[in-house]
Structures are given as C-alpha cells and as structure tokens.
Task: structure prediction
Amino acid sequence: MSRGYLSLVLHAHLPYIRHPEHKDHMEERWLYEAITETYIPLLHVYEGLIRDGVPFKVTMTISPSLAAMFADEMLQQRYLAHIENLIELADKEVARTEKEHQYEFNNLAKMYHSRFVMIRQTFAKKYGCDLIKAFRTIQDSDNLEIITCGATHGFLPLMQHHPEALRGQIYTAVSEHERLFGRRPKGIWLPECGYFPELDNYLAEAGLSYFLVDTHGVEYANPRPYKGIYAPVVCPSGVAVFARDQESSKQVWSADEGYPGDYDYREFYRDVGFDLPMEQIKNYIHPDGIRLNTGMKYFKITGNHDLQYREPYDYNQAMEKAASHAGNFMFNRERQVEWLADTMKSEPLIIAPYDAELFGHWWFEGPDWLNFLFRKVAYDQEMFEFTTPRHYLEKQPDLQVSVPSASSWGDKGYNEVWLNGANDWIYMHLDKAVERMKELANHPGRGDELVERVVKQSMRELLLAQSSDWAFIITNDTTVEYAIKRTDTHLQRFNDLYYQLVNGSIDLSMLADIESKDNLFPEINPDVFRN
Amino acid sequence: MLPFSYDEDKLVLLPVNPNTLFAFWDYSTKTWDRIAGDSSKSPILVLSCDANERHFGVEPHTKSYYFKGLRSNNKYELSIVYHKNGERVTLMSARPITTPADRPSSNKHFETVKFSFVEPPKTIGKVNLQWEPPVEHFEERVNGASDQASSGQQDLSKNLSSDSSSGTLGSSEMSGGKEQKNV
Result:
C-alpha cells in the first residue's frame, strides 16, 4: 500500500519558428533537434512501457505553438529531410571511423546510425509524420495526461491589466488543444509558471481545472497552506494549484548537483559539427558554412577540465549510470514520502516538473533515466505511486482554499527575466497592439470574409509577438538578434494589418504572404478580444 | 520600424519582483505641447502606497522608470503630475499593482472544500462563443471581393467610411496612419 504520490510533469515547448522563405533556417533546427533527441525518444519510452505492461503515469505540456509545428506539413517534410541527412552523416561516420581505426567512435557512429533510422521509422512510417497522432495514441492509454499552455507562451503576469490579452492566450490554447488532441485539457502549464492573483479566474472561465506554480507560489499563498506544497490548494475560483517540489527538482535540474552533470554522461558541447574538418562536415551543417550541432557527439563530460580534453563516450557505462541514478532518485523519493506521510498524517503528493527538452536534448541519457525510473518504481518499491494532477483530483479530495502568491519559475522567482533593462522596450508596443486588437475585434465589418482574415491574422501576429521566448532570449544574450527581429516583425505585421483595415485598403498579396508564413491556429477566435 | 510614440496619454505599471515595479508611459502631442519647453511643468511621478507618497522627478523625454526598494505584498498607485500655480495637475494614472509576496502569509484561516472539476465554458468574458458577427454592412463588398482579389489591393474605404466616422476607430492617428511623433 503506497503512502504517497509522485507526479512527473514534462513541459514541452518551443516558440513557433517556421520560415518557408528560407530553405535552411538556423532556428528552425531547434524543432528538428528536439524531435530527434527528446520527443521521439520519450515516445519510445512510453511505447516500451505500454508494450511491457508497466504501470506509469506522466503529465506533459505540449504547448500550442509546439503542437502547431507538429501539425505543420512543411515542417514535417523538412524534418524528414533533416533526419535523412543525419542518417547519411552517420553512415559516412561509420565508414570513416572504421577506415581510420577509431573503434571507440565507430561503435558510437553505429549507435547513432541505428537510432536515427529508428527515429525515422517512428516518425515517417509509424505515425505518418504526425507527432500529434503519436502523443494522442499514448494519451489514449491513460498513462499520459497532456495539458496545454499559453497559446504562444505569453508571460501572463505582464498582461494582467488586459483581460482580453489573457483570454487571447488562454482560450486560444484551450480550443487549439481540443482541436488537435481531441479532448479539452483539464490543466494548464502557465508559461514560465507565471502567476498573479486573479489569473485563476480566467483559467476557470476557460474551463481549466488546475495549474502549476513554482514552490513559493503556494508557500506564500494566503491563507498559509497547512500541508505546505505537498497537497494542492484550491483558489476561490475553484481551480486547483499544484506546486513544484524543490528537492526532487534539484536532483535532476541543478547544473552543479544534478544527475546530468555526471562525468560518464555525454558531453553536449563536443559535436562532430564542430570537431570534423570542414571538408567532411560541410554537407551536414548550415549551407553558409556555419558550424552547428548535428547531434552526433563522441565524448563524455569527463571532468571540469578544458572542453578540448574529453574522453570517448561509453554508451553502456552511461546506461548503467542512468539506471543507478534512477534508483537513487527513487530511494530519495521513498524517504521523502515516508517522512512527509509521518509528518502530515496524510498522503503527500510530490510534484516534479521539468522542461521536457532537458531529457534527451540537454541530457542525452534523460529518456533512459525516465525509463529506468518508471520500471523501478513499478516493481522495486511500494512507498509511493505515480499519478497525474488529473488522476489525483478525480478522487475529489478536500482541498484548502487559498490564493497563491505572484510568482514564476524564472531566475529569482518573479518577473525580472521577462522584464528588465534589456527587454522592457517590448511592453509599450505589446500594450498598444492589445488595445488595437480590441478595436479590430469590435470592428463593424466583422463577419465579412476578408475582414475576418485580417482580424484573425492580426491576432496571430499579436500572439506571436507575445511569446515569452523573445524576452527570455534577449535576457540570456543568446540569439538576441533573432529574438528582436521576431518581436519587431510580428508587431510590424500587426500594425500594417491594423492600418490597412482601419484605412479601408487591404493589401491582399501582403495578407496572403503573412498568412502563409504565420499560419498557426487555423480556427483562431478574435471574439475573445471583444468587449 | 516600431514607433517611438503612439501619440496617446498612457501610463502602465507592471510588477518586477516583491520590491520593484516598472512603469512606462507615452504622451499625446497635446500633452507633450503642454509640458515640453516649460520647466515649471516638468513631469513628476507620484507613487503612492496607503497614504504615503513618493515623488520622482523625470526628464520630459524619459519614458520608463524602475521603482526599487518597495514593500512586498503592497498595493501601489502611480500618477504623472505637474504643478501649475502651486496646484497639482494629474496628467494620467496607471492601474494599481500589488507587489508579490516574499514570505509565508501570517493568515492561518483554514477552510476546505471538496474539489470538483470546472465546467466547460459557454462564454469567455462577455462574449458568447456561439456569437455570429453581423454582416449586413458588408454585403456589397463581399459580393465584389472575388473580382478584386487578383488586383492585390482592395479598397474598403467606401464601405468603411460611415463606420470610421462613428468614432469606433476614428482617432486622428489611425486615419492619418502616421505614428512617429516629433519630440
């Protein structure tokens, strides 16, 4: 008889990046890398567990922007070409490493080749290039609970003065989720876990029953939750809220203490895209000769030395370490549940949320770790069992009424990642665009086919400009130029459409052009901006 | 290129963390003409919490400000004012914002409810999701739309003229289509 619950929540999200105007766009590769390294490996884990009859429960966000990319035919075809190209590279690497007697690398090249072939098989043959269908299939087994997110991952605390903007993100997400996944989501992953008091009213309005916040969102809730973060509380709106457990997060997430930093695991920053001579790699990097990660990596982390000193990666050794780390994680949760159950005199619920892309993309062995964990928990212990927030709530528990505190899971726990001296210029323009969107939604011409096209496309542009990813990238000083360009482009497109409609002169070729580029959310409903 | 100003009076206050708020604002040409070039009318930010006020003088061309060292979990109000003949004139006010909490609540009130799932919505805000938008004003142009589609540019002004003058969308900025304000 278990004494408590563990709920793993994997947040899968990428901003909407689709550039039909470029044959090989650098940032479009984010999706291709994540499909190869995270999404399909996770599907393989779930499929294996179901095949073997292993009981498991996991929750995944698939953000609406990611789901829209999964469903996009052009991106599907481009991914297919991408994986074909990787298979070709792996094939050549098998031959090269054999010819050059690099036997340690040769084994790895064969491993990559076999993985890539299997991934292509899953993507193209098994699911017809449709990853929505793939995740729906797992969802139908009732082991996987898929929840939604903000439509384009807009950071909601900075929209709190615009109810229509909140509705635009939330309602669009819910309706798109239902359209693609065939059922209305019960829960939502708030973008960046960004919450402010009263946001739950808008979630309730959209028919959502629960959301997740960072630890202090519930720790500082009012009134003080008497079970701490180890039981959900319910807002006055009736929406339940679950809080992240720091202890289980840190073991996986922490760069210093977390499992992914183990010296036996694969080194992310040594990739043949950078290591091989240009002549050998030129067909597998950017056509302009820009080196990039291919996903073929031959070294392990090894230690804290210079990145150039890395020892060959030993896949079997890494798998043993992943199994050992899964056992360690399970042991720690057992002790945690035991202690909490004794202290609380009730069954604790531990919420362990992670970015899905940590598993596989950043931490190559992550999906295998999950696989080991699910199997060990099913057969090697009885202290706790996996659940999802929905399954937990279906037992109709008595929950304490409390209002969570404003919070996020960003650095320092509040809003400064998305609002600081580097990116604060965005908000004046977003604010104006929201006001203009309200005007467009109330436009007297609504109902006319062409006006509807303009108003809907305007809303798409606004939602895309609101993606928290752009402000995040600017703060983290990574692909800043791209993030600024995306913000500018969507706001400019929005303003152009706005003026065209208001001035009564619509540029049809421009409208068709941006409809074909920013083509997400085909059933978008601007009525949520009406007042 | 995004405009420097949208030619409107607006003041927005946003939370950054328990001790910091961010404000941005914009001036209409009319307001700008009132305050620019007259140092006695220099704008002052007035941040108030309970009955306490703090004043921050800013240069006229400044358009944003970070308020630091504030109290967590407190409601703040912000206005931009100037003084005229010793009297305070409020130019604009922001929607109040409460700074986030940074510690557990002292409120130990305890109440539980049996959880039940939220029902699917029939409306969002004031909007019935089954709402059908009116089409009667646009029948004429709808009928002609397909003929003009290939021209690449469609003139809606004939159909929109009566609506534009109704005030729904009729600001000078919109009809002029020019956002850049010279300051």
